[in-house]
Amino acid sequence: MSASKNLITNLRRLTTAVTQGFFEITHNSFALVGIAVLCTAIAMVARPELRQIGEIKLFGWLQERQFEVTGLVSDLIASDRATAADPQDLPKQQAAVAFWLSKKYRVAPEPVSALVAEAYDIGSRAKLDPTLILAVMAIESGFNPFAQSPVGAQGLMQVMTRVHHDKYQSFGGKFAAFDPLANLRVGVKVLQDCIRVAGSVEGGLKSYVGAANIEEDGGYTAKVLLEHAKLQQVAAGRSVPFGSPVVAITARTASSSAITNGAGISESTDGISNTDSIDSAETPKATEEMPKTTPDHAATLAALR
């Protein structure tokens, strides 16, 4: 009987020892894990590059796992890179312009809205009518940010990248020509300089298209001014059908109305409004096709833009 009691007692002691040992090992393991986590956190705070490496590796692992599950490689910041805005968030005037351009040129309203908002913002700073900027963009590229002409003009505003590559340095280099907002900003700077040197919007447009020293510009200036007049009416709240003629403005009126004050509001000094009736003989005729670039035009374009 005493042997049986001794066996039971020994088993209890063994069980107690094993239990205590397991608790100590587990407790010590949790403590070690906690210390390791604390040391890792301190190292990441002290050395941000380690944190960045860890985040990259973790993100890469998560991407691999997601690809295995969905068959797609995720890119969580793709939406942030997109040039797009909700047209409902724009002021009424800008929204009207964005929807009109979207329908006419068959492009989505969201990217057009972002371009319209940027044109109004940069136009107020450059003292250029934003509708003139948008008219140039429309005629130059039809809102195709990847457009390229035979002579090398690129992007929304068809800027000659090889000539104005220095202007893209603040945007990270020449490939920024295909970033819509970067191209828009550089194009506005070039247009602003052309108008300043020429002394008028008409002369500036001829320089912009590379026809400063040529008598004819293939109808480019007239086409831009016609589109500008339409956009001004759209911005004023008028209904402007895409294909119907609009009341054009004379060359002098176009020149004055395209130079704006700091708020981006057109200031006309000649007393002629955009709704005045103008005799057709005074209005430059614009065709519905893009002007063709002649060899002389191409040479001048490469030299000036």
Could you describe the 3D structure shown?
By secondary structure, the chain is mainly alpha-helical. It folds into two domains: 2-70; 87-304, Lysozyme, CATH 1.10.530.10. Helix content is 58%, strand content 1%. Strands 1-2 form a two-stranded antiparallel ribbon. A hairpin with a 4-residue loop joins strand 1 and strand 2. Helix 1 (2-46) packs across helix 2 and helix 4 (92-105) crosses helix 5 (109-126). It is elongated, with a radius of gyration of 33 Å. The relative contact order is 0.09. Residues 244-305 have low confidence and may be disordered.
Strand elements, count = 2
List the helices and strands in order.
HHHHHHEEHHHHH
Looking at the overall shape, the CATH architecture of the largest domain is Orthogonal Bundle
Q: How many domains make up the coordinates?
A: 2
